[in-house]
Amino acid sequence: MSTKLYVGGVPYTSSNDDLKNHFAQAGAVVSAQIIIDKMTNRSKGFGFVEMESEEGANKAIAMFHGQDFMGRSLTVNIARPMVAREERPRRSF
Question: Is the pLDDT assigned to residue 3 strictly greater than 80?
Answer without folding.
Answer: yes
